[in-house]
From TrEMBL:
Residues 16-81 form the CSD domain. It comes from the Bacteria. It is found in: Cytoplasm. Its main location: cytoplasm. Gene3D superfamilies: Nucleic acid-binding proteins. The keyword Cytoplasm applies. InterPro entries: Cold_shock_CspA, Cold_shock_domain, CSD, CSD_CS, CSP_DNA-bd, NA-bd_OB-fold. PROSITE patterns: CSD_1 (PS00352), CSD_2 (PS51857). This is Cold shock-like protein cspG. GO terms for cellular component: cytosol. GO terms for molecular function: nucleic acid binding. The lineage of its organism: Bacteria, Pseudomonadati, Pseudomonadota, Gammaproteobacteria, Vibrionales. The keyword Nucleus does not apply.
């Protein structure tokens, strides 16, 4: 009997990462994440935050996310609190 495994696939060349919210402005709906691996800060927009309800992040909050190249540098996608 064959075994079926569901695999979650990400978009083109996205990689999972973890980091800490450096700051997030609720009024403007964006902020930055400091990467745990020491790379450049990553831009995060409220639309990239997963979940229902009001989407915001708190300074110092640990998150996991995917990175993608945006028009001005790295930006976060599929952001989840950890």
């Amino acid at each position: 009997m064959p075994i079926t495994v569901d695999v979650e696939k990400s978009g083109d060349n996205m990689s999972k990462a973890t980091g800490t919210v450096k700051w997030f402005n609720e009024e403007k709906g964006f902020g930055f994440i400091t990467q745990d691996n020491g790379g450049a800060d990553v831009f995060v927009h409220f639309r990239a935050i997963t979940g229902d309800g009001f989407k915001t992040l708190a300074e110092g909050q640990k998150v996991s996310y995917e990175t993608e190249q945006g028009p001005k540098g790295l930006q976060a996608a599929n952001v989840e609190a950890i």
